[in-house]
Amino acid sequence: MFFDAKEYATAAQILDGLVEEVPEQTGPRLLLARSYYHSAQLRRAETELRTIVERDPVEHYARLMLGRTLERQGRDAEAAPHLRMAAALAGDFPQE
Question: How much of the chain, in percent, has pLDDT values that exceed 70?
Fold first, then answer.
């Protein structure tokens, strides 16, 4: 509902409490990271995404978002490995 209304900061406030209640669940943490990303809270998004990737290194969407978050902060060199890994996990290989 908050995503549809583009109220990402409000969504982040609600999801933060949910993540505190169930920190082991990836879904709420990923939504929280998306909320932070869309509300330009990029350091917070990065923190949540790194937590997910640390727990589940093959979580493709978290890798993609982490790469995009780092790119948005102007940290392209750090972003590149995450974006390559996300592409590989999604099966997006360059056609020769």
Answer: 93
DSSP alpha helices (H): ranges in 1-96? Answer: 8-21, 26-38, 42-55, 60-72, 76-90
> What is the distance between the alpha carbons of residues 5 and 11, in angstroms, rounded to a whole number?
10
Output the six-digit token pair for 10: 């409000």
Cα-Cα-Cα-Cα dihedral sign, residues 20, 49, 3, 11? positive
Token pair for 90: 């999604």
* Alpha-carbon gap, residue 76 to 73, rounded angstroms: 8
Residue type (1 letter), 10:
T
Half-sphere exposure of 87 (CA within 13 A, CB side): 12
pTM for the structure as a whole: 0.85
pLDDT at position 94 is: 59
